Amino acid sequence: MSSGTGKYERLLERCAKLAPVPTAVAHPCERTALAGALEAGEKGLITPILVGPEAKIRAIAASSGIDLGATEIVDAPHSHASAAKAVEWVRAGRAELLMKGSLHTDELLGAVVARETGLRTGHRISHVFVMDVPTYHKVLIVTDAAINIAPTLEDKVDICQNAINLAIDLGVEKPKVAILAAVETVTSKMPATIDAAAICKMADRGQITGAIVDGPLAFDNAISKEAADIKGIQSSVSGDPDIMLVPDLEAGNMLAKQLSFLAKADSAGLVLGARVPIILTSRADNIRSRIASCGVAKLVAYARMEANA
Q1: Same-domain pairing of 295 and 181
Q2: DSSP 8-state secondary structure symbol assigned to residue 29
Q3: Which pLDDT belongs to residue 2?
Q4: Which stretches does DSSP call E strand in the chain?
Q5: In terms of domains, do 58 and 89 share one?
Q6: What distance in Å separates the CA atoms of residue 273 and residue 123, rounded to the nearest whole number?
Q7: I want to staple 159 with a disulfide (CB 3.0 to 4.6 A). Which of 69, 126, 142, 293 is the partner?
Q8: Domain identity same for 131 and 231
Q9: pLDDT tens, 90-145?
C-alpha cells in the first residue's frame, strides 16, 4: 500500500505467490458476475465454485461465449437457495471465501447473518471500499458505505476495528484512521463529532487496537496536511489516513461514488466481520475493481489462516 500508481497491481503481485482460494460464488446468473468470477479464477486468485441453477448458469455461459471448463457447479434452484447453499459450503470448510453473484446484496447477507446457519461472529458486519484514488498516494479504505445505515457508537467501534484489521492484513503496520465529520471541533449540535471524540478516547483506552485514530476531522483536514496546518490542527493522521470512518451510510456512499466518478478511483468491495471475507461487487464495477476485490479477499483469507495456524 505504497505511493504512486498501480496500487492495486502491487496487491495483486503479493497474491501471485499464494495458491488460489476456494470461493463459493452465490448465484452467478448474469454475464458480468459469471465472467468476473471465472476471470479471477484464471488469474489464480480464487478457485470459483459456482452455486446456483446449473442449467441457467450453463445457458448464460454458452450465450456469452464463456468457457466453464472444469469449474465446479453446485446446483441450487433459485437465488435464495443459492445464498443458503454458498454459506453452507463455507461453514463446511469447502470454501474459504464467499462471493456475491447476481443476487441482491440483502439476500446474500440474510443468509450470512442467519442465527443458526450463517457466518456470524461476535463482531458487527460492515462494508469497506478499498479504493485506488489516482490523486492519493496510497490505497484508501472508506467504511461503512453499504451496510450500516445509521450506526450507533458501538457499531462504529466494530466498523472501525474491522477496517483496522483489514489494513493490517494488507500490510499496513500501524493504520491511520480519520473519523470524518463536517467540522473538526466537538459539538453537541453534530452527534458525529461526539461519536468521533468518544472513539478516539476508546482507542486511547485500548477498546480499539492496532491503529492511530483521530477525529473529528473534516474531509479536507483529513486528506490534506496543508489544510490542517492552515486551521492549526495538530494531527498525525492529517494528510496520511489509511482509513476514513464516515458518520453514516449516506455520507460514505456519496464519498465513495464521488471518488469513483470524479476522481476516477477504482474501488474493491468487501464485507468484514463474518467468519470469512465476503467479496461484494457491483454490476457497475469494471474488471479491475472486480479482480482487486478478489485479490484483497485472498490476502485477508491467507492472513487469517496464518493467524489461526
Answers
A1: no
A2: -
A3: 42
A4: 21-26, 46-52, 72-75, 97-100, 126-132, 140-143, 176-180, 212-217, 243-245, 266-272, 278-279
A5: yes
A6: 5
A7: 126
A8: yes
A9: 999 999 999 999 999 999 999 999 999 999 998 899 999 999 999 999 999 999 99
pTM higher than 0.85, yes or no? Answer: yes
What is the CATH classification number for the domain harbouring 211?
A: 3.40.718.10
pLDDT higher for 117 or 288?
Answer: 117
Q: Which domain holds residue 37?
A: 1-120+274-309
Can you say whether the dihedral through the CA atoms of 307, 170, 92, 42 is positive or negative?
negative
**pLDDT at residue 4 above 50?**
no
Residues 83, 148, single domain; the answer is no
DSSP lists the bridge partners of residue 267 as 131
Over residues 25-54, mean pLDDT: 95
Same domain, 202 and 307: no
Q: Work out how many domains the chain is built from and give that number.
A: 2
On whether both 8 and 138 belong to a single domain, the answer is no
Residue in 105, 65, 66 with CA at minimum distance from that of residue 83: 105
- Contacts by residues 81-86 (CB-CB < 8 Å, ≥ 24 positions apart): 82/26, 82/27, 82/51, 82/52, 82/53, 83/26, 83/27, 83/107, 83/108, 83/110, 83/111, 84/111, 84/114, 84/117, 85/24, 85/26, 85/51, 86/24, 86/25, 86/26, 86/27, 86/51, 86/111
User: Using one digit for the tens of pLDDT, what is the confidence trace for 179-227?
Assistant: 999 999 999 999 999 999 999 999 999 999 999 999 999 999 999 999 9
- What one-letter code names the amino acid at 150? A
What cell numbers appear for 144 in the block?
A: 461503512
> Do 94 and 191 lie in a common domain?
no
Read off the CATH number of the domain in which 16 is found. 3.40.50.10950
Burial of 282: CB neighbours in 10 Å, binned 0-12, 13-18, 19+ = middle
Query: Three-state DSSP class for 231?
Result: coil
Provide the phi-psi class of 166: left if phi over 0, else alpha when psi is between -120 and 50, else beta.
alpha
Pairwise CA distance, residues 133 & 252, whole Å: 15
